Amino acid sequence: MSESLLALQNIEKSFGGPQVLKSLSLDVKKGEVLVVIGPSGCGKSTLLRCINGLEPIQSGKILLDGEEITAQGIKWSKIRQKIGMVFQSYELFPHKTVLDNITLSPLKVQKRSKADAVKAAEALLDRVGLLDKRDAYPRQLSGGQKQRVAIVRSLIMEPEIMLFDEVTAALDPEMVREVLDVMLELARSGMTMIIVTHEMQFARAVADRVIFMDEGEIIEEAEPGAFFEKPESDRASRFLNIFNFDEKK
User: Fold this and answer.
1) Helix (H) or strand (E) holding 221
2) Which of 5, 75, 145, 227 lies at a CB distance of 3.0 to 4.6 Å from 141, suitable for a disulfide?
3) Which residues of 124-162 are buried (b: 16+ CB within 10 A; e: fewer)?
């Protein structure tokens, strides 16, 4: 890993009431896989949505490649080509095929040729084991397959960083592994990633660094081995005990 790719400086966010993010600062290096964990409602998903411009911040700065992307007049349509995001819900167009869902943005937003977009889409579908589903419709896919298509839809835009917001939360247990395997392969390929997850074993396997959040603040951050074996804060210890996490597994 080398230079910083993403920097958050004293981010504050509220929805008209209590603060959801409290003077939160964070630095993500190029090629780093950062896993964010914490109890429900602690601000994890809001953090990702602020990074991707889906939620405005009240104060602070977010910088990508040294450019302040929260500055006035920033065109988020261009920024979001650099910041891919995958949600719990797949948000695929039901009336379009897998291939059409994937190629829509590169054709409309990036103005790429159809031949180039199709070639890239097919290569990515092959990478995630779904090339044979290129002409299928979302209703013909399992939940795990839909989520892999959603990942490909983000990857085809060639983002600099990928954000994953609890992407396995809506999946049946047997479908979780196929999605996590794709994310693990992305991490090994050098993709910069911020992952919000409750899959603790996966978090330990994929993370370069783990951040534990509670009540809108970063309570603890550490390398995964150190965090899962001996968290420094009592709050993180109590959280991990809920999962009966065993570092020997």
Assistant:
1) strand 217-222
2) 145
3) bbebbebeebbeebbeebebbbbbbbbbbbbbbbebebb
Polymer length in residues for the chain:
249
Strand runs labelled E in 123-216:
161-165, 192-196, 209-214
Task: Count Cβ atoms within 10 A of the Cβ of residue 71 and give its class: 0-12 exposed, 13-18 middle, 19 or more buried.
Answer: exposed
Sorted by sequence, the CB contacts under 8 Å of residue 53 that are 6+ apart come out as 69, 74, 76, 79, 80, 83
173-188 and 143-155 helices cross at what angle (nearest 10)?
A: 20
pTM of the shown model = 0.93
- Sheet with strand 67-68: strands edge to edge: 19-29, 4-14, 59-64, 67-68
Residue with tokens 């989520």: 147
Residue 166, both tokens: 């609890």
What element of type H or E holds 24? strand 19-29
Read off the pLDDT of residues 28-72 as tens digits, 9 standing for 90 and up. 999 999 999 999 999 999 999 999 999 999 999 999 999 999 998
Q: Which residues contact 67 (CB under 8 A, 6 or more apart)?
A: none
Which of 225, 108, 208, 92 lies closest to 151 in space, CA to CA? 92
pLDDT, one tens digit per residue, over 128-178 is 999 999 999 999 999 999 999 999 999 999 999 999 999 998 888 889 999
Longest Cα separation, the chain: 55
Q: What is the pLDDT of residue 46?
A: 96
Rg of the chain (C-alpha set): 18
Task: Using CB atoms within 10 Å of the CB of residue 208, give its burial: 0 to 12 exposed, 13 to 18 middle, 19+ buried.
Answer: middle
